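Ticket reopened. Same input as before:
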Amino acid sequence: MRLTAENIAAKRGEDLLFADISFVLASGEALVLTGRNGTGKSTLLRVLAGLLRPEKGNVSWFSQDAEAGARACEACHYLGHRNAMKAELTVAENLSFWKSFFSDFLGGTGSSVSDAAEAVGLQEIIHLPFGYLSAGQQRRMAFAKLLVAYRPVWLLDEPTAALDSGAEVIITGLIGNHLAHGGIVIAATHQPLGLTNARELRMTGFAGVGEGVW
Amino acid sequence: MINLLLRDLKLSVRAGGGALIGVLFFLTVVAVIPFGVGPDLNLLSRIGPAILWIGALLSALLGLDRLFQTDREDGSLDLMLMQEHPLALTVLVKCLAHWIATGLPLVIASPLLGLFMNMNEVAIGAVMLTLLAGTPAITFIGAVGAAVAVALPRGGLLVSILVLPLAIPVLIFGVSASYAAVEEPAPFMPPFLILVALTMFFAVLGPVGAALALKNAGD
Amino acid sequence: MRPALIVFQKDPMTESFAITKFSDLANPTRFLALTARILPWMAGITALLFVIGLYLSFTTEGDYQQGDTVRIMYVHVPAAWLSMMCYTVMAISAIGTLVWRHPLADVSHKAAAPLGAAFTLIALVTGSLWGKPMWGTWWVWDARLTSVFVLFLMYLGLIALNRALDDPSRAARVSAVLILVGFVNIPIIKFSVDWWNTLHQPASVVRLDGPTIDAEFLWPLLVMAVAFTLLFFTLHVAAMRNEIWRRRVTAQRRMAARMAGKEE
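Engineering reply: fixed in the latest deploy. New output:
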């Protein structure tokens, strides 16, 4: 398994946020994106998730049993700033919808909805509407969404935002577990995630104005 | 995909009665017409099918800009864009759910409003049938507008302006079929079949166009 | 063996040059240089054709039924023809935007939309002027007038959309999708409007059995059609040049703002 990014450059508006970012991540490796706000951490994650087309470069995914032509983003879970859960539905409804909608990627299976809720320590409240949960609980449940369907790559944007230290330990434990089972993690974060062999990519921001086209 | 349909239906029931607002708007639009044209029952029964169709068209457009907006606001749309399911299929299913939640109630409410317009049974039946066949087409072609609205800082009104010209054929054939059922010499089937054909064509064009717009509207 | 992890980020300043090289594919600079040379010629030929066309239009004899009002046709028919051709140009540019992501295609369909709206408006106004003596009213809901009116609404919608979006490349891509969906729909709209009402006289210039209108009217019409087509392309190229310069100015201003930030 290998996630490769080659010479990625991306713009926000007309400004070039970063250029020529290349890396190769193999099974069990983690990459931590650091840097001030507005330096393009989230943008880089969105490019990797296939949500934003890079100005230059490409992201590719390779594994033994992958079908040719699969997009890299299909191997990825993306946890953005927003939780992608509906306040009107119960937690269980939310999670089981995503479980069926995601369906497992080749080479693994996701855990059941109740197991996933248990893993983030909130199995007693999955019958409640998502909107009634506190911000920290919502974030943990959004994280549980990554567990219900298997994806080798996790793209995490501030995964521990709005969490207290106890919950942070749970989340970092889950990330460590994913890596131990051969997963790949790319996380943008301000806090240290307690990852031992993670590489760091320090984003500096503003690589120039994309005026070259004109 | 069936889960997506069920989720969207559940949401539309639980989240603040979008269907109810659509039907209320329909009711209000039709109810103000007699104040505009006068309470002449003969005139009302003559223009009734047209009024019902225009009312239904406007009501169907009313909630359309929310079709993708809610999913975008909470980040669900991002995750849908990443999956291997063809995006057009996801859009098609969302359109169907939206139509069941907002279009179908309009069809069901139309006979009651037909009575207000002094229409006879045949005319009411014809309008109901043409609305049943035609309103999905409005939702499908409206999905393109809704997908464009995702990129807009303030969507709403512009969506209706962009979608209405494209919905004119649906209106024309819906209304002609309704009239053909009542007025003797004109045959009912040709315009009705063209209406059905339009719905099927828009069922392809709408989701494909909307998927293309969603992919390109990303930031 | 695990592949090594490589992480590097180039110096930002060298990077902007790489982007310039990449953009050589699009090359608006070459476009500007080329059009600067061609544009005066295009404008000159257009003016010449208009002189000939207008001279012919006003010297041919009036129709025995329609009188002098027939001369409106020499403006109306070319404008109506251009209102459709402009949309076709926009649809082709839209494909360029979506498939090849060519920045000139973005500029092209953005610049064409107001022109299309203007020609459509000319067609509508002249049609209405012609209709007053012929039909006795300024406006009839006749099939062709109505479909041109719908086309006008679509142009206005596209202009409004382009103005509502602030990021130019996103605006270009989103409106390109809408242009294409509209393009597919135009025949359907035309067909439904024809079904709805066929009151207008049948098409009389291009028919399989040859033109039915007199050659005396045909010549000025053809010259005017060519003149209008050239006028469209002249204006289109000029509008594209404007748009490119506008974007350059925006980029320069942005650059100036960022550079000031760096020095602090």
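The interface with chain C takes residues 141, 144, 147-148, 151-154, 158, 161-162, 164-166, 168-169, 172-173, 176, 191, 194, 198, 201, 205, 209, 212-213, 216-217, 219 of chain B (CB under 8 Å). The mean pLDDT of chain B is 88. Please confirm and we'll close it.
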